[in-house]
């Protein structure tokens, strides 16, 4: 036992050590969701998890948030780190009568002090008027407002890691632009892990990239390295050729840096301004 720890690696904020995940192990329904996932993520990163439907994105997010345990390997979080998840259709999980109760449900459960301040501050962060929405039903909001309340519910727990499962799902252009500005705001002092089919949308906030191919880790690295390796076959079977990613790579190759903002690229052809 003593000798197994002699060559201990330096742990980052979140570490996956040789993680595999099976559902229904030793049953006729046994299915492998993830195979030998191995990476370390530093503090204040923005990690995109990209992959086709069924490639294991949601499973990976659940493991990263410690909501489930790996079958093989280890998920290690720095001690004291708090994570919160916004599920793909988080609004389907609303169950309180008012927005205020919905947002404060988690903090109440954790017996956090200062509920009034938590409510006001989180609502302001997600760009909703605390007083105006306080008594409204979360079920009767617009799609974009629902998504903001869902994010507020997670932020109310002051998580160090915020995990979002395909947050762009079923938002219109305006909702997408709001989402992007909100993520730019809340990434400060925080780590974000975002599962997505649409990596270019998050281009200007992304620091790291994990590409999953049928449960296998096709790529993990910095976003710069992802762009430079982007023509690799392993990545392109998952992340299709995209003019936006191509342009980002050109800028990186020419200047040695990622563009500061790709807003104009992102909005090209979409008719929206983020
Ligand atoms: N609760 C579950 N029981 C059995 N199999 C599951 C369960 N959840 C996911 N899977 C399977 O695990 C694999 C990965 O699923 P998931 O993590 O949801 O991928 P993604 O989010 O990329 O679509 C898929 O083959 C899926 O069918
Ligand atoms: Mg999923």
Can you give me a brief rundown of this structure?
This protein is of the alpha/beta class and 274 residues long. Helix content is 33%, strand content 22%.
If classified by CATH, what would the architecture of the largest domain be? Answer: 3-Layer(aba) Sandwich
Total of DSSP H or I helical runs spanning 4+ residues: 10
What fold name goes in the CATH topology slot of the largest domain? Rossmann fold
Distance from first to last alpha carbon:
54 Å
Which radius of gyration do the C-alpha atoms yield?
19 Å
CATH class of the largest domain: Alpha Beta
What is the N-to-C order of secondary-structure elements (H for helix, E for strand)?
EEEHEEHHHHEHEEEHHHH
Coarse morphology: globular
Give the distinct bound molecules. adenosine-5'-diphosphate, magnesium ion
Strand order of the largest sheet: 5-6-7-3-8-9
Poorly predicted sequence stretches spanning 5 or more consecutive residues: 268-272
How would you sum up this structure, described in words?
The chain folds into 2 domains: 43-72 and 160-267, 3-Layer(aba) Sandwich (Rossmann fold), CATH 3.40.50.300; 91-159, no CATH class. Helix content is 33%, strand content 22%. It has 10 helices and 9 strands. The protein has a 6-stranded mixed beta sheet, with helices on both faces. Strands 2-1-4 form a 3-stranded antiparallel beta sheet. A hairpin with a 2-residue loop joins strand 8 (208-213) and strand 9 (216-222). Helix 2 (99-109) packs across helix 3 (115-125), helix 2 packs parallel to helix 5 and helix 5 runs parallel beside helix 6 (173-186). Residues 268-272 have low confidence and may be disordered. The site of adenosine-5'-diphosphate has 12 residues, from strand 2 and helix 1.
């Amino acid at each position: 036992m003593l000798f197994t720890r002699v060559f201990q690696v330096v742990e980052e904020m979140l570490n996956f050590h040789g993680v595999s995940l099976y559902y229904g192990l030793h049953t006729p329904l046994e299915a492998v969701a993830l195979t030998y996932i191995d990476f370390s993520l530093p503090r204040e990163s923005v990690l995109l998890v990209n992959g086709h439907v069924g490639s294991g994105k949601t499973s990976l997010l659940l493991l990263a948030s410690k909501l489930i345990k790996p079958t093989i390997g280890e998920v290690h979080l720095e001690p004291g780190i708090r994570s919160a998840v916004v599920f793909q259709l988080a609004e389907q999980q609303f169950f309180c009568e008012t927005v205020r109760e919905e947002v404060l449900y988690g903090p109440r459960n954790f017996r956090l002090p200062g509920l009034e301040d938590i409510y006001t501050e989180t609502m302001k962060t997600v760009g909703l008027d605390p007083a105006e929405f306080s008594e409204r039903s979360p079920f009767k909001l617009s799609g974009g407002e629902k998504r903001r309340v869902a994010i507020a519910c997670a932020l109310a727990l002051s998580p160090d890691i915020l995990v979002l499962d395909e947050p762009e799902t079923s938002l219109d252009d305006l909702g997408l632009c709001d989402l992007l500005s909100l993520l730019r705001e809340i990434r400060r002092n925080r780590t974000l892990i975002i599962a997505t089919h649409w990596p270019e949308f998050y281009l200007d906030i992304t620091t790291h990239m994990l590409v999953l191919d049928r449960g296998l880790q096709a790529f993990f690295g910095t976003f710069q390295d992802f762009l430079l390796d982007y023509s690799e076959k392993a990545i392109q079977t998952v992340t299709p050729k995209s003019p936006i990613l191509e342009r980002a790579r050109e800028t990186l190759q020419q200047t040695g840096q990622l563009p500061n903002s790709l807003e104009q690229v992102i909005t090209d052809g979409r008719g929206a301004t983020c």
